[in-house]
Amino acid sequence: MEISVLNIAGKETGRKIDLNDSIFAIEPNDHAIYLDVKQYLNNQRQGTSKSKERNEISGSTRKLKKQKGTGTARAGSIKSPLFRGGGRVFGPRPRDYESKLNKKVKQLARKSALAHKALENKIMVIEDFNFEAPKTKEFISICNNLNLNDKKSLFVLSEPNKNIYLSSRNLQKQKIALASSLNTYEVLDANTIILVESSIDVLHKMFKVS
Q: Lower CB count within 10 Å: N or C terminus of the chain?
């Protein structure tokens, strides 16, 4: 599929670039997307939640009342989960949420996410650009030119660029990602994907297409 290349002023340059159909025009596999996003979110979890069980609560183990004859339920230690301040039953314990996913499934998920955006016409290609120094105002100006101000957008670069990253860091709805480390969650979370022209070659190499 071909798409027009824009400049940072939001105007067409008169050039078009080919987005490989084996990436951007495949039949999206929603189950692969689900598995990849689930793994990504699981791997973000710290797994440090912890609550005290009855054997970890400090307090007396004295029996509160006699076993029989009170007319109420029998009760043992004040540390019982039935009492306020007692231990918690089956509470969270520190655990590792990290999971693994087959590389081919991850690759299919990323391509499916990009294909979804292509089907929805939410992919833009702009010329490579740079800033002489970090300037958030200049980055906002580019977003205005591309009509991205009120939308979550993901700028995909071919290589790290400190000035672009620092210029966008304070903007809540704009994010920067590298083509080589693009993940399914980032693609789906963005309303619009802005591919810097040189990043397309990186994507083609990453997915091993010519």
A: C
